[in-house]
Amino acid sequence: MRRYLLKRALGLVFPVFGVVTLVFLMIHLIPGDPVETMMGESARAADKQEMRHALGLDRPLPEQYVAYIAGLARGDMGISLRTHEPVFLEIVSRWPATISLALAALLIAAVVAIPMGVLAAARRGSALDKGSLVISLVGVAVPNIWLGPMLIIAFSLWLGWFPVSGRGEPLSIVLPAVTLGAGMAALLARLTRSSVLEAAGEEYMKAARARGLSERQVWMRHALANALLPVATVMGLQLGALLSGAVITETIFAWPGVGRLLIDAIESRDYPLVQGCVLNIALCYVAVNFAVDALYAVLDPRIRVER
Amino acid sequence: MRFVKAHPGMAAGLAILGLMALMAVAAPVFAPYSPYAQDLLYALEPPSAGHPMGRDLLGRDVLSRVVYGTRISFTVGFIVIGMNALIGVAAGCAAGAYGGRADFFLMRVTEMAQAFPGLLLAIAIMAALGPGFGNLLLALCLTGWTGFARLARAQVLSLREREFVAAALACGAGKGRLIFMHYLPNAAAPLLVEAAFGLAAVIVAEAGLSFLGLGVQPPEASWGAMINEGRGFLLFAPHLAVFPGLCLFLLVLAVTLVGEELRDIVKR
Q1: Tens digit of each residue's pLDDT (9 = 90 or more) over A24-33
Q2: Domain with B99 in it: what CATH number?
Q3: What pTM did the predictor assign?
Q4: Considering only alpha carbons, which residue of chain A is nearest residue B115?
Q5: Contact state of A145 with B213 under an 8 Å Cβ cutoff
Q6: What's the rounded Cα separation, in Å, for the pair B31 and B68?
Q7: How close does chain B come to A215, measured CA to CA in Å?
Q8: Domain containing residue A248
Q9: What is the C-alpha separation between A157 and A152, in angstroms, rounded?
Q10: A·B CB contacts under 8 A
């Protein structure tokens, strides 16, 4: 087990190196003079030079890279040009909003999708099964950028059930979470259905029935217990994906998370903050995927042997 | 009719795709007005007989802009998915066929690109390069190829063990000949399925980036940018966000339907 986890951890070296390097190079990809892009053409030459020095852009590229890595090791991601606060602190203050949104989306998706998938599998070929397939197809195809505004029109402006935007009262999380979790719910419903159907055809189901277990016990103890392992894994992996999907959802609902901070930073050309946000989201995505992979190996010993 | 009965999803998807492709090609015929013609006196006018989808903040006809927006979605979608397939399949085939260091290097590059979730890498590239159509194409081309690379490599690794490949090798076939004459024709079907789902993802990504103000810039008509413009008027002029979003949804639904039927056919 340790060997497997060590091997997987070593596999993280290249992705993490890639993320850090690409984020470092971002500022050098800016066409022309990055300092002029940030400060505008009308800024005084002395101010530009001061900014260039503060960002370390007047040093050779390898030296900048080493300084960047050393800074990251100390938790130093630079200073925001807009607020003059440390980038790290700005981002850390926004993570609770993003994490709560991602977890709420995950919860809504699971609560809707798993029973739907199980019922569809149990009544295969029925109107209920066909209905759930159509709903999940719509869920896969509906884009967040449209679903969000449509939910606002229906449930905030017409019915007045939920706030239009912001993160104030407890109900304010419902519409952003539904918007973020809709695609995932569709995916999970399909996966649950196919996993349950697959498990239902296994030999252990026949053995359980032969032992005289009731149909309910056969389904709950055997079919579901085995079918939900891949569903749980995909849920974990999707949690990482939800963090990036949150950029759009947070923008629609003015949700004060890291995604919204990233878009605000891009609009105000606050590149140290842009770099910090991109780095944070990407590293969090890599870490979540690793954690899920490791947890899956703990839960299912076959994974350790196969890989 | 037999095809429609056997594959109703694909038939519906192809019908919607065909209609939208026609709209994209013959946009001046389908659009009743110029997508740029402004009339501020009629700004935010609700849908009417003369303007079935209403008018936007500048008094432009929303239907005409939706029709021209089809062009952006199709152009970006097909160019990007073509480039993604080209880059990904070339990398995956080379990694699988040559193995060793080439495989190690190409797969590590793929892992690095995959370390960024979904749209994030495209957002980062657009943030650095600035918004615009060319940069949008570049950002999406650089981000969506990894799925093709992994799939092509897996296909080549599985095909490498087959007898017909051993026979070709015995006849003196080189790596290039193996790739073009044996691996690619046999891997085409799953790659086509990947392309169908990839196309839906690219269309959504383009709309998402334009929605965030990082993609296609005004006055060009992109569905994502139009939904964003309509976001501020959801109470008084919901038509601004409803119609472009509905078209985006229908296009993604059509591509998904085609992709799912293709996947089922390939599985059989």
Answers
A1: 998 888 887 7
A2: 1.10.3720.10
A3: 0.91
A4: A15
A5: no
A6: 8
A7: 31
A8: 88-304
A9: 6
A10: 134
